[in-house]
Each structure stands twice: as structure tokens, then as C-alpha cells.
Amino acid sequence: xxxxxxxxxxxxxxxxxxxxxxxxxxxxxxxxxxxxxxxxxxxxxxxxxxxxxxxxxxxxxxxxxxxxxxxxxxxxxxxxxxxxxxxxxxxxxxxxxxxxxxxxxxxxxxxxxxxxxxxxxxxxxxxxxxxxxxxxxxxxxxxxxxxxxxxxxxxxxxxxxxxxxxxxxxxxxxxxxxxxxxxxxxxxxxxxxxxxxxxxxxxxxxxxxxxxxxxxxxxxxxxxxxxxxxxxxxxxxxxxxxxxxxxxxxxxxxxxxxxxxxxxxxxxxxxxxxxxxxxxxxxxxxxxxxxxxxxxxxxxxxxxxxxxxxxxxxxxxxxxxxxxxxxxxxxxxx
Length: 334
Ligand code: P6P
Known about the structure:
This protein is of the alpha+beta class. It is built from 8 helices and 15 strands.
């Protein structure tokens, strides 16, 4: 591992260390290519007429942005032909995407959110692509939804691309979390932030405060104590952030610490919050844990949740270890 090395060199060194066949490396390279293409489209925005919304809704019932569909297609086109995947699943597709018959199939599955935070795209705020790689179950050549329903602990890789002032790629394969910055002139991600580490303590939290009237007591207690500042029970002042783009929030937390919360609330307790387990919560949890953080639903480790559906939602409380553990303790107290 060497500052300034390319992401391809980094993953090949990883392959040599783990005795890989090269199939995983090739899959990752196809994903990186897709994200570079998405970065280019997002960066051009209005110049190429990709902003704005469509008439359509996705399976979540959310109005689709043009770029939601365009970036989903980019992920499909970059990854369907390589022969490394047996199937794909996306926030933007109701069901599993089978690898077309003209292409060979491989031993991996991918779930992804092609453009997380896309409600921000028309106002030029950072968005991102989140992905998670699982092994296809032994002997399965035509994977169905249930073959994807593996707990987060089964992920072999998780990552996100952040399309911000810089385009960055953050990945983990279970040996730490590492960040790479896209050199637009060279067209390569270069290692700039090896071994990301989330400080165990923080004075910064992220939550959509407009939902306060719906929060359950443990979350309300935590936020009230933070807002009470140095004269309150925490004896310290806190800062709040809310970008409405999970990738941007998680990247900030990986960089300087913090807590991100999208909890379950009284609007629809059975729904389990807003964020999706398979292609938002699990990949981000893998990365956060590999950086020394904690990621919980409030009552259980997110990566140990047994999935029940491709688009299942879970409450998400992740970030600085000591703060997330405090919120989990408040959930235990009720
Ligand atoms: P709200 C984006 O739509 C997203 O899925 C996450 O990236 C983000 O953290 C959250 O939803 C924002 O939700 O309710 O504040 O718009």
C-alpha cells in the first residue's frame, strides 16, 4: 500500500495477498469504470440534459430522476458482460437483473444504489453510488431474489463513489477502509486516504430534524441532550449536519467522526425507517465497521440483520463508536 498508487494496483496487491484468481479484481475494475462514467455524466449535468425528473416512480414509490435511470443503466452495461456476476439488484429495479444469455456468468452478486441522494442532483449537491458484493450461493446459476438475501456479514466487498468537489472511491474488502481520489486528467482513482479511522468520540450528529415529532424516545433523548449543549447532561456543545445524501454524510463521518441517524419513527413503525438494507445500510455498515465505527438499527448490529426482501428498509444509526453505543444503550433503557 503506497500513497498515490492507482486503485488497480491496490486491488491487485490485495489479490496477491489473498491468493485471488483475478476474477474479483476484474469485477471491481468494471465497477470503477461505471463510476467514472457516472462521475462524468453527473459533472456535465445540465450541459447534456440529464437533470430533472421523469414521470416514472421506482419500486420505492419515489419519483425517478433522469440520472437515476441513466446511472442504473451505466452500472448494468459496465458489469453485465464481464463474466464475473451471476446477477444484479438495484434500488431502481423491482426484481433481480439476470445476466443476459449472451454473456458468461460468474460467482458474484452485486446490489447497488446507482445514484444515492439523487433528490440533490438538480441543486448541485453531492451524490454517490453505493455497491455491495456477495458470493452467489454454490450451485446457483440463475439467482433469484432469495439468493441475494444474505446478512451483511457475508459481503466480500462494499464501496461507494462520492461525486463531490472531488470524485472519490471508498472501498473495503475486510482489510480496512481506504479512499481514492479520481485524477480526472489521468482517469484513474489514486490512493489518497489509506486506513480510514472514525474517531470514537464526536460532537457532531446528522439527522433530519424536521421529523422530530415522529421520533421514538431513545432518539429524542439523544438529540435533546446534544442540543442542550454544555449546560445540558452532555456538558458539551454539539454541531448538526444534514445533507440528505447518505454517501456525503458517511464520508464526512469517515473523515472527521460523527453520528448519522435515519431511525424508525411513528409515521410507519413497521416500515423500519427509510434506508434500504441491501444496498445502503449493509455496504455503509461494512465500511464504517472497517474504519472502527459502529452501525446499529438501535437494537441490533445492522450487518447481522437477516434480510427478508431485496428492498427491505432498516433503521440506521452509525458512526463514532462511543456515541452509537450511547444511543443503543438508550434504546435498551426504552
Ligand atoms: P430525507 C436519499 O434519498 C436518501 O436515501 C439518503 O441518501 C439520505 O440520507 C436520505 O434518503 C434523506 O432522506 O427524508 O431527509 O430526504
